[in-house]
Amino acid sequence: MVRTLLVRGLLLGLLAGLIAGGFAFAFGEPGVDSAIALEQAHAAQEAPGHDHGEEALVSRPGQKAGLFLATGLYGLAVGGIFALVYAGLRGRVGPRSDGGLALAAAGTAFVAVILVPFVKYPANPPAVGDPETIDSRTLLYVVTILVGLAATAIAVATARRVTAGPWARWGAAVAAFLVPVIAAWTLLPAVNEVPEGFPATLLWQFRLASLATQLVFWAAFGVLFGWACDRAARRAAGVPATAASPG
Question: Which residue ranges does UniProt annotate as crossing the membrane (predicted)?
């Protein structure tokens, strides 16, 4: 069963990654082009007459084509990890139905791994950020991901211990999740390397497109994985696929 789930996660993760790549190509790449144009214009103003035309290792058309490769590989890796985690959760926590558990797990993963770090350290376009601080910024981002995962584990454990009813259980779980997350948001150092004069609208649009790309991936993957699991469960139970449809 684990092998089947793993193969299913890899394939559907790849498909969801390509869907997210299409969204990023349509809504994120224009912002990247604008940021690169601003960066080149700023460099030309700082040293007029100096040749800033260093050839990039990968051209912009190549980078845009590579976007689908990157999101596809991302989906492949995330889909495999998700399938293994799903196999461990199945029958132990969350909704009893396979589709419901897949959707709940995908939504939880989006909040813990994407939204929690994004609120503290949102994505920046190419013209924003000091290259010398990339290691420290990466470390801080990883720390917030770990905080999100730890807070999720604490929330699940808390929900399982509370037996006073659904409202009390959900309230305790939300509180158990938010306390460590808010503490991390407050205590971790802020990073603000947006250069003076950088268009706020462009920055906002880039960050929104970046977050929306992740939302598209997790929504597509959760729906596809849940649908596939539900379909497999019906087959295993000997229920025809059309039996669940009204009429």
Answer: 67-89, 101-119, 139-158, 170-188, 208-228
